Amino acid sequence: MSHGQHYSERFCHQRLPEKPVGMESQHKHLLELLRRTAVHGESNSVLIVGPRGSGKTMLLNCVLRELLEVKDVNKNVLPVHLNGLLQTDDRIALKEITRQLNLENVVGDKVFGSFAENLAFLLEALKKGDRSSSRPVLFILDEFDLFAHHKNQTLLYNLLDVSQSAQAPVAVIGLTCRLDVLELLEKRVKSRFSHRQIHLLSSLSFIQYLDNVRSQLSLPQDFPDTKFYDEWNDSIKVRHFSSYPQLVDVLQRHYNSSKDFRSLHLLLMLALSRVSASKPAIKPTDLLEASRVCMVDSKANILHGLSILELCLIIAMKHLNDIYEGEPFNFQMVHNEFKKFLQRKSHSIHNFDKPVVMKAFEHLQQLELIKSMDSSTAKIQKEYQLMKLLLDHSQIMEALQKYPQCPTDVKQWAMSAFG
Amino acid sequence: MFVGLLLSRYLNMSVEGQEAVTTVTPGQYILIEGNDDEYPFVAKLLKFFGDESHKQKKALVQWFLRLSEVPQNKKLLLGRSPHPQEIFYYLGRACDNEINAESILGTVHVRQDNSPPGTKDTLYVKLSWDTKAFNVLDPVLMQDTPASTPPKPALPLFPPCASPTATPVSRGPVRRALPTPDPTVMRRAGSVSDTRATMSAGKRSTLEISANDLLLCLSQEWATLMGVGATKESELIMMDCSCLFPVGSRSYFIYLDVIFVVLLTCLPVLRLHVSSVPESLPCREQEFQDIYNFVESKVMDGTGGCMYISGVPGTGKTATIHEVIRCLQHASDMDEIPTFRFIEINGMKMTDPHQAYVQILQKLTDQKVTADHAAALLEKRFSNPAPKKETTVLLVDELDLLWTRKQNVMYNLFDWPTRRHARLVVLTIANTMDLPERIMINRVASRLGLTRMSFQPYSFKQLQQIITSRLNKVKAFEEDALQLVSRKVAALSGDARRCLDICRRATEICEHSASHPSSTGLVRMSHVMEALDEMFSSSYITAIGCASLQEQLFLRAVIAEFRRLGLEEATFQQVFVQHRALSRVEGLQPISVSEGLAVCQRLGACRLLLLEASRLDMLQRVRLNVSQDDVLYALKAVRD
Q1: Looking at chain B from residue 399 to 428, which residues have their Cβ under 8 Å from any Cβ of chain A?
Q2: pLDDT tens track for A119-164
Q3: B505 and chain A in contact, CB less than 8 A
Q4: Contact B548 A253 (CB under 8 A)
Q5: pLDDT band at B92 (very low <50, low <70, confident <90, very high)
Q6: Distance (Å, whole) CA B53 – CA B598
Q7: B295: exposed, middle or buried (C-beta count within 10 Å: 0-12, 13-18, 19+)?
Q8: Is the pTM of this model over 0.90?
Q9: CA distance A408 to chain B (A)
Q10: In which compartments does the protein localize (chain B) (predicted)?
Q11: B398 touches chain A (CB under 8 A)
Q12: Which residues on neighbouring strands pair with residue B57, listed in sequence order?
């Protein structure tokens, strides 16, 4: 089905939207700024700041697409994409810049010269340029904050220095989600940065959010099968939404938890994947089910897979936590607590040997449901290593409720301390 | 011949360990040991004499140059590719014409005629070089001068210029004055518009050919015109140009280009860009004068010295030095002071402090060697007496980054100027005033000396003056707006870059709102306020306001937990209990622990919260990165 492909492109961020939604002023500002560099050769630097999933990269890509549509600009502009997670130091970043500018073979007569040669060459190349004759270079630094951790911030200093002097026209565009990013810059680097920041902070209301969900789900105008197009788009009309208060509740919950597009796309993708050839329309139940999958606690599944013994140990730990107010415990304490339970209710559960209990305890540690508090260097016997439980009471109780064929005694034991 | 001689000399040295005996007499042309073994220096021996202590034998020489010794930027003046055996009679006077007799390698034949010599070991001379231009050599100079008469290196070949005895105090600022509109340019511009007028009357067909050249020269002149404020006229020229060229033709596009260039020069936005080089540097006259005097005296005396310049970023340190060098270079072009070389290195623009040697050597001699080798070569260069040495002015920017554990890079940089034959002036720049005391060990700090200067942050009056001078009398800002910018920046940092950036942004904002009917086209208070807001206002409060409901709730839970504990730190587990209670109060469905952690991580990624490593899961400690009052204020604003 071609609309399947259409949606996967949309939700997996493989295709840009026609127009960035809800960030018109930022779009205009950035476009104007980059146009000044691309067309007039005026160097600039700018930071795009916004929380994860707020559309920083999308905005930039939209602007670049629009910019590169101009024929002259397309031929001239050299975009260089760097990512702080990939270019973890300046040496790698420089190599990447030389590679993307197709200069590998020019540096020092070999594919890649030394780091020092590379830097000197690049600076020389940028210095020779001027605003009218050289091709503008757009440096796009994704995860900008990570570049600030490089030694001496050499790369940032040099890029920003070029952008502040009469050399080849460059634009330095940083993308980051840290609001305090300017505090990371060294004073000389900071002085050279133009202090232009574009903030992407969405103040989307719930009504707009719902509109968004609908527009994201609807098929584009140019969809070939008009009959299907009508049926599909009709099925996600407003009345369908409002007739399911449950559905609005679910979306409200998502909206409350996060407004970003990425989590919304995840939800919609899950809902869409339930559409098949035999069931060619999206139903509100699909969304409910998808939301349930999205919201599920990550540890709940692990807890369901535990044995009764392991579950008992966790309950013992919970009691210890209650008694000692969250102080760390060791295996011996847990084992004692477990034995006390066995003495009281010996008929309901098999009496395990200590090594077996130890094994179960170690398994819990491997699952990272408990975590050792000692530093690894200290040589302490396994039984006496101090541990902490990485579970909340609510998680334990919920797991017990859902655990298949859980002995009543165990359940009661777990409940008992609450009273 | 000299190759053979060289060989025998080397053979003798290596095999028998003694010098080959060569005899030279005054009047002969000799080869002198230089930096390059393959091409030794060439000179004519004038006379021998012993120095004061009679220990060393010295010689007086008249220098000849190979083309490779001519500065790179002047080589083109020759206008043709040189013959490899061609040399030039040296008419400059910056070079020492005394040499140690020991540095003489041997003799060489030099002829003066127009045809290149046939044999390989004969050099020929045709032109002379006076550090500015190549001239045909006066044959009289090549006559054998009696050894007793000292040569007159400074020949009055160039027209008499300002007297070299003029006091340096008057020199700098005078030369830096704004260029007055050149009457010839005005006249030429006028004549151009005349020609165009006649052309538009009839001959359109011939126009295509000349339009290109015409417009290219026009662009220059218009730019000048705009600079001096003749806006009206140039607008008129542009207007009647457009009816002249057929739309869409090649010349039309050139014409558009030209207009573009003109428009750019008059836009205040461009003048305000930090990169645009101002005609003069206002507010740094005293510093300029001090540095100028320092460098000039050293260049004049042929001695060396160090200077340390400090100041916070954006106070014009590097710009002032560049301006000084520009003026000095101009002075040396006018032959008021000896020629000198200017080299610049920047601690931030190298990967390792030892790369400083490599860069200095490369800029001095175009050689590419490793750091250790470069250090050795520089050491040799600066400690040995060498003929024809001109003063080197070395600017070391961002000095603090040249710090190494043993501090040998800094040590060398400050030690070389103290050598007798170094002729090296080192100007160093860093941000902190007490850098020598803080990071340098005694022997380095002592060599740096006490010639220090500190650039104070600009005061608001100075910043105002800087913007006004940049705008070059174009009225673009309202008086109050200008005041606001300069006062704000002066209070914050006194950084001129910041000031210019704000102004540039304000101009942009003003342009965008220019369509508004009430706007006067001037940048007003409101525009500046908007720009300041964009750049300096903390975004934390807006970020909290725009956060999702659960995120806001989590922040409230953090504060509630802090209050309960009486500490500014809590674990996620503790905060989450509060969070759950709060959502019950608010009537929201409680969220699961994983969702809670996700909310916490999102706040941590924005740095509203400071978190420990996420592998600690529920035990990670949470701190606020904003003050509690700010959070409460922001949350209150959301609710109202």
Answers
A1: 401
A2: 888 888 888 877 777 888 999 999 999 999 999 999 999 999 999 8
A3: yes
A4: no
A5: low
A6: 85
A7: buried
A8: no
A9: 25
A10: Nucleus
A11: yes
A12: B50
